[in-house]
Amino acid sequence: MKVIAPRSVPAGASRLSLDVLFRKFTGAIALLVTLSLAGILIALTRESWPALHRFGWHFLISTAWDPVSDNYGALVFIVGTVVSSVIALLLAIPVSFGIALFISEMAPRWLREPVSAAVELLAAIPSIIYGMWGLLVFAPWFGNLEPWINDHLGAIPWIGALFQGPPMGIGMLAAGIVLGVMIIPFIAAIMRDVFLVTPQALKESAYAMGATTWEVARYVILPYTRTAVTGGIFLGLGRALGETMAVTFIIGNANNLSASLLMPGSSIASVIANEFTEATTPLYKSALLALGLILFVITFVVLVLAKLLLLRLDRMEGRQA
Amino acid sequence: MISRYRRRRLLNAFNLTMAVLATVFGVFWLVWILWTTIRFGAGAVNLALFTRDTPAPGASGGGLRNAFVGSLILLGMAVAIGAPVGVLAGTWLAEFAARRRLGAVVRFLNDILLSAPSIVIGLFAYAIIVDPSGRFSAYSGGVALALILIPVVVRTTDEMLRLVPGSLREAAIALGTPYWKLVTRITWKAAASGILTGILLGIARISGETAPLLFTALNNQFWSTDLGHPIANLPVVIFQFAMSPYSNWQSMAWAGAFIAVAFILLLNLAARMLLGRRRPRA
User: Which domains does chain A have, with CATH numbers?
Assistant: First the structure.
């Protein structure tokens, strides 16, 4: 698309200055929006300075979280955030791939839109509803399933310890599963979009050679869209890392590390949501804000990676990146 | 050869079946969540929900009037701040920076902001408004929600304006139209339904946001429209009531959840209808 920038307009200076004013004004606002990212970084660093100054790098590797003696560390929550997000990805990646494959290669045309719309609606449901549903409906149901997990997965050598614990329904595994469902629409939407822009000629050549649908997906579509698919997965990861309400409801909110995924845990977002308004000492509040800063930095890095990988998708579609 | 052919066919059939099952799995959760929300929520909706305020712990009766009104006030503030800012920034991106490096950077960072965790946005609003002013307030909640709304509006405005044909602009310029008038009278008008869709989707996104309100608008058990003080709002009330041990609170939380979901789905439906086929990528 062609955009013509206003350069020299012959009819009078007043019109020109209005044009310049309009451009500068909208530009300033756009920059302001962008600078809010820097603002977040600065404001959070300033607010978390007392805790960072007091504990230093030790803050990142300490498992202490003791408001009584004012001693704080972030490790328990960093681990909780990462573990719940990894469980979410393990669930969401294959399911999203299946959904995208179904929509792009298998579904009849009339079914594409409704299925896409249904999956996108999953993204529209607010996380508080996921959380509430997770606590009051999913967790009791999952609790009935957990003795089975204990007996079967828990008996496997090496990884068995991950699946042994009381059948409470809530915990790291339950939180990871609900998180996984929440990020399915994000990953599936991107996979579907890139699968649909894979050149028809490529796919048809493979079909003409006698390849099955699965072989086309595995050896033609997936290699062609690999970067964008990875970008979509990172985008989903970024969502999962920072998701708050759903996790807060179901993760169990225990401020210690445990080997089993069935045990309650905590993520960065859930501990902030739970304890922020109860944080009485300045250092306590500052430590929670430091957790927020860590979360912001982690998600920022993940999202930048995601967007860089996805820029390729835009180029594939012939868009301006 | 036959056996190899059969193996390929079997693998194909198995994997395609898994793909269908994955789709069924995804849709199954949607149905499950919507069904429980309707089952527990629709029955709990009654007139008192809209005419009475939130009850004290253990007390019976009551409604969610203050929470509904508080949420509407917060949404109103967020739209009043976020919509103009988002539209103007998006306009700059599409009209003045479509091919400039700075435009690409701004667009990139806006996308990051779009996916940034809402809890971090809430902490930011706490750090710049609540902490200096010394108290939780409705307007800090409005600002936090506006910050989440803005990138959504920026992105859709940008995308929708770039869909406006360049020939339309050239025609206007050929007639001697000043550029600001071209944008405000012609391209905005041509992209109006798309821009409105962006705002609707943004409202849908923020109307369920809970995390950023926990440390800004907080909550208020009583009726309040004072922007300088904590204000009741639906998401935080749902959070507190759903976590509570009282069964009447829980059923009220379901009713609130039902109304919130219905509101959000209606907004999404409206956005979809408004836009027809030209859908922006989420």
Answer: 57-320 (1.10.3720.10)
